[in-house]
């Protein structure tokens, strides 16, 4: 059994760790409200531009655009992985990283190329160490994404898809449903799917448009000079909006995930401290009992000697 000094040192170490995790929990709690507000403020714009895109596309089924055209053969798949710069957030980084790594191996075995864009230091280091070097990477921006990051990702994505270098692109990130709950989202951004046009409220709302709503959508608007020219400006704005909202949403989810992970770590530390405290008291009691026994035995020996 460990001695009192060893137990005391371990208790001190766990107390120090508990103070760190409790402080990190408090920091994430203070930051999550602002991050959630930013994501929620950006969401109506994403919803509006998605609805407008649906209106334009549904107004004229003959409209053609490179970003709406599905490639018959899939030769290259692009993954945009949005995670964090720091760890200690539970499975926040692990889930998208392992999913992409697994799928990349499967696609490569079929002769399909894989490109990766990472947002966050953790996924960048993860894929680089596994010889899946990202084509683009952004670090130190996970908690405060900006439009420059968004523009660069969108430009690379749209030019690659229009030129045929990329055949499918997917966003992988965590959606902040609330302060305490996060949901993993996998969203195909290009080609723009029929589901995205029929369900303008994803990922927060999952219900498709009814037939009545769809009919109303087709007849509400007239476009000047033409629906095709409106679409030419609208599609790039849509892609940028979807990416930027995903970055904001992920930032809010990161604080929520870290808050939950740090709360769990603090609770675990308190539980271990309780167990060690009982062990410490038991060892201390045994040590005192042993000392008393030795004292009584020594006193008895002196009496017999006298």
Number of strand elements: 5
What class would the helix/strand composition place it in? alpha/beta
Which regions are unreliable across 5 or more consecutive residues at pLDDT < 50?
200-219
Mean pLDDT: 81
What do you see in this structure?
The protein is α/β, with parallel strands linked by helices. Helix content is 62%, strand content 11%. The chain has helices spanning 4-59, 94-109, 121-129, 147-163, 194-198, 211-219, 227-305, and strands at residues 76-82, 113-119, 136-138, 168-176, 182-190. It has a five-stranded mixed sheet, with helices on both faces. Helix 2 (94-109) links the parallel strand 1 (76-82) and strand 2. Helix 1 (4-59) packs across helix 6 (211-219), helix 1 packs antiparallel against helix 7 and helix 4 (147-163) crosses helix 7 (227-305). The two termini are 38 Å apart.
